[in-house]
Amino acid sequence: MPSCFVKNCKNRTNVLFIKNVKFYSVPKDPELRIKWLEACQRDKDCMMKCERVCEVHFLSNCFEEQMTKRKLKRKLKAGSIPTELLQLPKERQKRIHTNNTNNAGPEKSVRTAIPTYAELVECATKETENESIPENTTFKKLWKMYQWKILILHTMYKMLQRKESQRKCFQSVLKH
Asked: CB within 10 Å: which end of the chain, N or C, has fewer?
C-alpha cells in the first residue's frame, strides 16, 4: 500500500479519515525526479522503488481530467511539481495536554477556537515554520496541531472539488 513520499506526510491508502486520496508516482525523468525529491525534502540517497506523492501536495491546475465510459479520470500534467503543504509537523496530535502548575491533578486539555478554512490556508501558505514562532512549548504544540488540521482540511477540500467536477461532468453527459 502506498504512502506519501513528502517528509512527515502521513497519508496512506488505508487511512480511515482521508479516503479516496490519489497517489502519483515520482517521475522517472532524472531532472524532474530531482525537483520532486527537493520539493518533498528528501535526499537523493533516500530512493525507494515506488515513491508516490498524494494529490494534496499539488495545485488544482496541475491536473487534467478525462471522461471515460465509466468515470472521470484525473491525471497529473507532465512537468508538475508538488508545491502545496510541504512543511508538515513531525508528529500529529489530536489533543494537546499541558501540566497545570497550580493544580497537582490530572492533565487538562487545551481548548482552542477552530479557525476558518481561509485562516488555515493562509497559515499553511506562510513559510513561518522556523521564523517567528515563540519558544512557548504550548504554542508550538498548537502550531503543529493546526498544521495537521490544515492538511486534513486541504485534503477534504480537494476531494470535494474533485467530486463536484465529476458531478458536473456526469450532469453534462446526461443532458446530451
From this structure: C
Regarding pTM above 0.70, the answer is no
Residue span of the structural domain in which 146 resides: 138-175
Q: Give domain status of residue 132, yes or no.
A: no
Q: Is residue 103 part of a domain?
A: no
Q: Is 26 inside a domain boundary?
A: yes
d(CA 25, CA 137): 37
Taking every pair of Cα atoms in the chain, the longest distance, rounded to a whole number of angstroms, is 70
Question: CB burial class (10 A; 0-12, 13-18, 19+) of residue 140?
Answer: middle
Together in a domain, 151 and 83: no
Q: What is the pLDDT of residues 81-128, one digit of tens each?
A: 776 665 555 554 443 333 334 444 444 444 444 555 666 666 666 644
| Sign, CA torsion 16/129/116/83 | negative
